[in-house]
Model the fold of this input.
Amino acid sequence: MNMLNLTYSYRIYPGLDQEAQMLDWLERCRRVYNYALAERKDWINSRKSPVNACSIRNEYIIPGDAPYPDYYQQQNALTKAKEEIPELKAVHSQVLQDALKRLDKSFKFRQERGFGFPRFKKFGQYRSLVFPQFKSHPVNGLEIKLPKVGAMPINLHRPIPDGFKVKQVRVVFKSSGWYAQLIIAADVNVPEPIPHGEPIGIDLGLEKFLAVSTGEMVERPRFFADLQSQLRWLQRKLRKKKKGSANYRKAQAKIRQLHEHIYNVRREFHFLTAHKLCDIAGIIFAEDLNLKMMSRGMLAKHCLDAAWGSFLEILKWVCWKRGVYFAKVDPHGTSQTCPQCATHTGNKELSQRVHHCGECGYTTDRDVAAAQVVVQRGLVLVADGQSAILPVEENCLGVPMKQESSRAILGSPHRNR
Ligand SMILES: [Zn+2]
Done:
């Protein structure tokens, strides 16, 4: 038996006063977040100044024995601050604590990756509230009941499955309205897919979206570039507007809408691609991005970070759902090995698009070659029985999935064989 966690997202419709209350909470959480971030930043900066001189920029002088304001320190400070600032008490205490938790997480994340120092959140940039605990089921019938906010209508467009309990609710304020993302959990026997069927490997690339070991390519859709340029155009327009004016806010709202649209479109594309891959394979191997990030350096950082990570999450989930075995392999040097004779062919420049082996004469696209190495490594792991099967603990997927529709678009499942 293991625990299965799922995230289901629903629209909710708070009343005017409830909306005002939640917007107020968002703003208070944002201030707590920024205060805590400033505290950590000051502490870190104060350590940078040499002992016998002053820093060129002015830093706060913080005593040498002052402990680093970590999560627990800040948690205690928050409890004290509540005595002095009664407005903080209006916010549900766990929701407020989550602001500190979020900051702590982003610092830990930074530590792991080595880049991405947390930034201050500007007005309106803090957009979700987390209710981490529920004693009883918050959803009954057509309403969801949030502590301290009260009941509000929810659009249960798909029912919560029997036997699942609501563990956590994240209320998100998007440009199209309010959403509740429910993390639901159940003790169920989750059958792990057993490796069977045709194995494929995939290589995520910068030019092409991905290459499959069978020789197929998935192109990066054109509309992404169009949407990105649209976004840049809107951002340029925003810069010309007077800050804080009505027109400024309107332009801001448009940008927010476009961001949400891009997010949705990208998700849709990721699901479609994941289903396509599941149509042609019984076993899928992909590169472990955390390891890949270290091996490829700064160049591909952003691409690796945003789009590829969420695609692999979605792929993992779709594979599990469809009984396809999924595992990650060590990506080290996948583009430097010949898939046919395992000769080390040396480092390829990014411009060199073709793999050509001097030993055996094997010639193919460089990304396809990398994908073929990935699948070989994966099969070795499976044979050794040491492959880390990745169970779906939490799929991190907020918005409801559109599997039915994507299958319909793709047509017959075996068209690629
Ligand atoms: Zn070769």
Notes: The chain has a mean pLDDT of 82. The chain has two domains: 1-190, 199-410. Residues 246-280 form the longest helix (35 residues). DSSP finds nine helices and 14 strands in the chain.
